[in-house]
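cache lookup: miss for this entity combination. No prior model stored, computing from scratch. Input as submitted by user K.M.:
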Amino acid sequence: MNASSILLVEDDVNDVFFFGRALKKAGVTIPLQVARDGREAMAYLSGTGEFADREKYPLPCLIVLDLNMPGKNGFEVLGCLRQTPPLSTLPVVILTSSQSEKDIARARELGARDYYVKPNEPGRLFDLVKLMMTQCDGKEPNS
Amino acid sequence: MDQPHRDERIIISAPIGQDADAMAALLYAEGFQPYICRSATDCSRQIAAGAGVLLMTEESLEPPQASDIFEVFKTQPSWSELPLIILTSGGESRLATLLDMVATAAGSVTLLERPLRAQTLVRSVEVALHSRRRQYQVRDLIEELARTQEKLRQHAVNLEKTVAERTAELTATVQELEGFSYSIAHDMRAPLRAMLGYSNILAEEHSAKLDETGKIYLERISTSADRLDQLIQDVLNYSRIVRGDILLSPVNTEKLLREIIESYPNLHRPDVTIEIIKPLPRVQANPAALTQVFSNLLGNAIKFVQPDVPPRIKVWAEPSPQNHSMARFWFEDNGIGIDESSQQRIFQMFQRLNRAELYEGTGIGLAIVRKAAERMGGNTGVESNRGKGSRFWVELKTSSA
């Protein structure tokens, strides 16, 4: 089991930067793949178009999903994943700026494993990344 | 024939045609409007259509025809008492019998004895009609009153409709504005997070390249961004309390307080003493909103102390003095206290009593406390003196569950 990845679904370039940096600091060697919105995430996960190359774009062991994105938002991605059998078992954690109880409940309902609010300090993000990686280690996709 | 015309009619009920014709001719000549009925049925109908005076001969009073007429009398509207003039030729006992007969039905009765002088008849009809006109005045007043009432009712209905429409418009506008400010506040946090993040990285990884002044400036960027973020978060929290669904459920307040103290590093600083006097009652509350209330009160209690004074907070509960289904939670501190004149102001948005360098804050915390308490059906207040600490209280419905 060599080819795996972490898929970050995030439209904010700064948040992508902070996340990548936190991964590196945490010593995570699994390559980070980034989808810039929900549509791209679904294309990646279902392997359509350029994403058909699984060598280059392996299925992730963890999906880190933002909720508030243009086009297809995080909830829609969760809904799609749920209805797509081979993808429905992939662990998804939410990393968003929304603290709304409604959003938290809805994300849980749609099968998100964990829900994290984007922290202000990079140090806190580092702690969160380590927590998230336990999901990845615990259950890797059998490809 | 129109109504005013009918109102003045003198209805003559006389089975003997000659009598009736003679009276009608006489009255007509005097300027009245006589109308002759030959049967009791016709008479009833004419009275119902409109009559000023009813003139009956004794003969037409014989039952059963007369009973129809009396029935019409009985069903008059409240303002109406149709004057009745009866022509009789009988003696004392006859008069008494007649009076008995009509008394139950008609209110205003004049008995004229035959043989009759023309002048007596005319005079009596005149008097009767005069009294009838007074009744019409009352009728017109009643009708006018009813019309006015109807108009008023209509106005009230319209007013209610207008108020409801305006309220709906206003509510929609307010909601739109609230939604707008919520979105703005929310979206402002993303660039702010970037500013905080990059200055943090700069300070951590690139500080070697900065001189002392540069480091201070960087520190100030962070502090300002932090303060702005706190402000935005407080606005968002307030907005959530105002706008959001506040569903109530039984809450274990002892457990909630313990969790709050555990999760806020400031609240378990070594110099801070928080004494909770148990038992605390369970309440009907929204856990998220109540968390805001308790954590803001505790946060204020440890923030607003004289420098170098270790904060001491005491929390206890008692039944509300006004309402025994409510519990009053007290938060007593040893802080700087609040002037009596400022005590109501502090619960309003953006009201700060102290300079920001001394005590940081956004001026929203207690506004959240009050709004949250109100939205959970409770209330909040404070007792304090400058320099002698404060005792804030929150009242909430107790829960039996």
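stored under new cache key. The first helix of chain A runs from residue 13 to 25.
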